[in-house]
Write a structure and sequence with these properties.
Elements lengths: L1 E5 H12 L16 E5 L5 E5 L1 H16 L4 E5 H4 L3 H17 E2 L3 H8 L12 E5 L4 H14 L1 E5 L6 H6 L6 E2 L3 E4 L2 E4 L2 E2 L10 H13 L3 H18 L19 H12 L2 H19 L31 H10 L4 H9 L6 H15 L15 E2 L1 H21 L4 E3 L2 E3 L1 H18 L1 E2 L4 E2 L2 E2 L4 E2 L9 H5 L4 H15 E2 L2 E2 L4 H4 L15 E2 L1 H13 L3 H21 L8 E2 L27 H13 L2 H8 L9
Parallel strand pairs: 6-7, 6-8
Antiparallel strand pairs: 1-4, 2-3, 5-11, 9-10, 12-17, 13-14, 15-16, 17-18, 19-20, 21-22
């Protein structure tokens, strides 16, 4: 049934009656009657009851208003839509579109106009382009006056000193442009959402899982093409395409992305090109001795750069810098400014920021698992990721290239990569696996000991198939009960996190919070080793939490959750992106959207039916 309604009149009446706290949303915290008479233009009425259905009405009215009409045809099927169906449809039909960007003329303004552009005060937007990319340089130069851009060509060699010199003039980094029919177009990509208005490293892979499930293959392929561009022109897959990330990569998922895109396209020419670039990244980013490859043969995160990470909010490092400022008889702002400019030397702070930048390179920014020691750790998940690179190389070369792949004057066979994978697995068993505790732990190669910090990352070897069936069984039986909470897997245990106080604040990648990439990799790992019941339960807990919060809070899909309380109300460090909006969320949040789509693709129908009734996990498992 469809109702024709006056949009503004209905909106005003609905919000006046139901949005009692005035936040432009209808949630369980509003104290209205939770019952509304929707009136057709012909005078017929339909009673809508309950927070969820009323917030659906609000959203449908706003979507109709966006189309520019005074009157709207409201589908009652959408108002009464089952929660799982609605959330999935909104992600597929609206949120991915809201998160899509391009770096061409049509898309660049939306990408650049956000809160992180300090240069906005001068109404000039800075675009940094690689030294060798003449197409990008000429293209953006032609747009300078039209879009108020300032194009800056990077030097041939981008050093940490150079990056520090431009930290006070941050800007966006160009991505792949292509010329088609005399028109320059940017490769599309998906941003996480909110203040994260650029293409991020590991976010992009997890977003692509959802994009591929939703049939948006061109978007997922565009992300892979932009990864290739970044490696070719910036030397690495960037933390994100902003100038201050030029010295920092993120967790490696390139082979997973190209493999999954290739499964859809079967474009072997495309695959060959990307496979060469992936091998280049593996060898030049991850396997350089003395950098991200430690002496023991395992890997670590080691972000280059100088000084404090400029993306951190003002005051974020005061607890570290204040004692040094006091000893120098300076106020904190002066000391911080001079140190950032390289005019004050401080070896102790230099060491602290090596670890801090490396934490950010790990994607787990921030966590007490890594604080102050990250660059000294062979972390479990990174070595699992690189093990998957090695086994992906072997599989692709054997199956798609007749077991012989030529690159850079070398011919690679699957045996070459399987030997590397076997060596990494042996070293991981020796240094990361604890047979007594039956879990993987990060290894501090300076102290030559495991950390014993119980993190969700202990389960990542399941995802990459790096563990034996016996190890998998032990992990599932030991680690999951320690980490499982109402809403899924917590980032770590409360015991490992330790006590929180004013002097030791909550970190966002620690207990009680849970994150989409951990859940998604753990689900895939359980699937790899045939732990069906555990998979169904963990997927259900996570998707239940997303569904319940969306139903109760006007469709909210945020960056992260407190999985202990199963709520999106997370206030650690930077707050929770995706919770601040008017009337309707336009984006959700990138990898959270993907986790929902992936989760419901794994769940048995009986569990989907339970979700639509919002049956608590404890009643089912």
């Amino acid at each position: 049934m469809k109702f024709s309604v006056d949009i503004e009149q209905t909106l005003h009446k609905l919000l006046s009656q139901e949005d009692t706290d005035g936040d432009t949303k209808i949630t369980i915290e509003d104290k209205g009657p939770k019952e509304f008479q929707l009136m057709n233009t012909n005078g017929d009425t339909y009673t809508i009851k309950g927070t969820y259905h009323l917030s659906n009405l609000l959203q449908e009215l706003i979507l109709a208003r966006d189309e520019g009409s005074d009157n709207a045809i409201i589908s009652l099927d959408h108002i009464e839509e089952l929660p799982v169906t609605r959330i999935s449809r909104m992600i597929r039909d609206y949120y991915w579109k809201g998160l899509t960007r391009t770096m061409d003329e049509q898309g660049i303004e939306a990408l650049l106009l956000d809160t992180k552009n300090d240069s906005l005060a001068a109404e000039v937007l800075k675009v940094y382009v690689p030294f060798e990319d003449r197409l990008a340089c000429d293209y953006y130069k032609n747009l300078e006056s039209k879009l108020s851009l300032k194009v800056i060509q990077l030097p041939k060699e981008v050093t940490p000193e150079y990056v520090r010199s431009i930290n006070q003039s941050p800007g966006i980094l160009s991505l792949k442009l292509s010329e088609k029919n005399n028109t320059i177009l940017g490769e599309p990509f998906v941003v996480p959402g909110g203040r994260f208005n650029e293409m991020y490293g590991w976010d992009s892979y997890f977003e692509a899982i959802g994009l591929l499930l939703d049939g948006k293959m061109d978007l997922a392929k565009g992300m892979a093409n932009n990864f290739k561009y970044e490696i070719d022109y910036y030397g690495k897959i960037l933390n994100a395409n902003r100038s201050y990330y030029l010295t920092r990569t993120q967790p490696p998922f390139y082979t997973s992305l190209i493999s999954e895109v290739y499964e859809k396209t079967k474009d072997k020419v495309w695959l060959k090109s990307h496979l060469k670039t992936a091998i280049k990244e593996y060898e030049t980013v991850w396997m350089v001795e003395g950098k991200r490859l430690s002496d023991n043969g395992l890997n670590r995160y080691l972000a280059e750069g100088l000084g404090r990470p400029p993306e951190a909010e003002d005051g974020h490092f005061h607890h570290e810098i204040i004692p040094h400022a006091q000893r120098a008889n300076m106020d904190i702002s002066t000391y911080e400014k001079l140190y950032a400019e390289g005019k004050i030397e401080n070896k102790e702070l230099d060491e602290y920021f090596v670890h801090d930048r490396s934490v950010r390179e790990s994607g787990h920014d921030t966590s007490y698992r890594l604080e102050g020691i990250c660059a000294h750790l062979n972390v479990v998940e990174l070595n699992a990721f690189l093990y998957k690179y090695e086994t992906d190389f072997a599989e692709l070369i054997k199956v798609e290239f007749d077991d012989a792949f030529e690159f850079d004057s070398k011919t690679y066979s699957s045996a070459y990569w399987l030997d590397k994978a076997a060596n990494r697995r042996s070293l991981s068993d020796e240094l990361l696996w604890d047979e007594q505790q039956e879990m993987y732990f990060d290894y501090n190669f300076e102290k030559k000991e495991r950390t014993n910090f119980v993190s969700a990352t202990t389960l990542i070897p399941l995802w990459s198939k790096m563990c034996s069936q016996d190890q998998a069984k032990k992990l599932v039986e030991k680690a999951i009960p320690l980490l499982k909470e109402q809403g899924g897997i917590a980032s770590c245990t409360r015991e490992s996190r330790g006590e929180i106080s004013e002097l030791r604040p909550q970190k966002q990648w620690d207990y009680p919070n849970g994150w989409a990439p951990h859940q998604m990799m753990i689900w895939k790992g359980l699937q790899n080793y045939h732990f069906h019941d555990e998979l169904q339960e963990l997927v259900y807990r996570w998707v239940y939490m997303i569904t319940k919060n969306a139903v109760d809070y006007n469709g909210t899909i945020p960056e992260k959750y407190d999985v202990v309380s199963a709520t999106h109300k997370v206030f650690a460090e930077y707050g929770n992106v995706g919770t601040e909006f008017e009337y309707i969320t336009r984006e959700g949040f990138g990898w959270m959207n993907a986790s929902f789509q992936y989760g419901i693709s794994l769940l048995e129908k009986k569990h989907i039916d339970s979700l639509n009734l919002l049956v608590r996990p404890e009643q089912l498992f």
